[in-house]
Amino acid sequence: MTNASFIEIRKKIQKNIDQAKESILVSVAWFTSKELLGNLVDKLDTGCKVEILISDHSENKRLSYDKFIEKGGQVFIVPTRSGKFLHDKFAIFDHKKVIAGSYNWTNSAEFYNHEFIIQSEESLLIKQFTICFENLKKSIIKFEKQKLLIEDNLNAETKEDEYAILEEELEVEFISSVKKANDLGAKINSTNVISYIHNYGAIGGASRLIRVGTDKLQSGLLKLWEIKKLDLSFESIILKAKYNILFDKEILEMAKKRLDELK
Fold first, then answer.
1. pLDDT one-digit tens code per residue, 46-103
2. What tens digit of pLDDT does each residue of 117-127 get?
């Protein structure tokens, strides 16, 4: 089966990551999403083999792959000096499905650009992309940040600086809110909450917590309600106008519904 998608692309990529059992092969020009990297780290914990190929563009300095590599993940740079700039955007899951299109694994692709992907389980197509991946590996070099050298107008279509700053501000506000809540006597399990933020970034961590609706999160929200400080909740924070752009409609609606139920 083959189909095209034009919205909620990150969610579809995450679904395929979650469903993969044996291997994930990723080849993208730009990879800056903390959330997607966190999802791949999770797969390494299940024994799934994960390989990432990225371009040598300086935009790729935004992520730290330390934990990913420590857990056995492999990340390589396709150097422009090999003759061509890596401009691919595809991933292969268990050699049974391929996703390809215009979508880089970045915040700009998710929140700013018009993008598309094609998902296919067609065996010949998967074989062709697998051969492409293996051919690219013939020119790879080991990942080291100092080898990300190319700086030019190739990132002109992105707004990664703006999104990176906004996500950093969101993370600071989240961590500050947990501290303030506990100082006021809420007794929230900050270790669990902050670990989500560190593992998946502020965007991914908050989305994951709100979507899953864990008991710990619910109890934390209730504790804030008890001390009349719902304004310190993650739900209230992501509903601020400045952060709306970082979350999909489903997450924002879930956050609003939870707050409304406590009013």
1. 999 999 999 999 899 999 999 999 999 999 999 987 678 999 999 999 999 999 999 9
2. 999 999 999 99
Torsion of CA 254, 259, 261, 263, to 10 degrees: -160
- pTM score, two decimals? 0.82
Q: Is the dihedral of CA 249, 253, 256, 258 positive or negative?
A: negative
How far, CA to CA in Å, does 12 sit from each of 3, 9, 91, 172, 220? 12, 5, 12, 28, 29
Non-local CB neighbours of 231 within 8 Å, separated by 6+ positions: none
The segments of the chain whose pLDDT lies below 70 read 82, 150-158, 213-218
Say if CB 7 and CB 109 are below 8 A apart. no
CA nearest 79: which of 61, 52, 106, 53? 53
Residue 159 burial by CB count (10 A; 0-12/13-18/19+): exposed, middle or buried? middle
Q: Quickly name the fold that domain 2-149 has.
A: Endonuclease; Chain A (3.30.870)
Note whether 116 and 103 are within 8 A (CB). Answer: yes
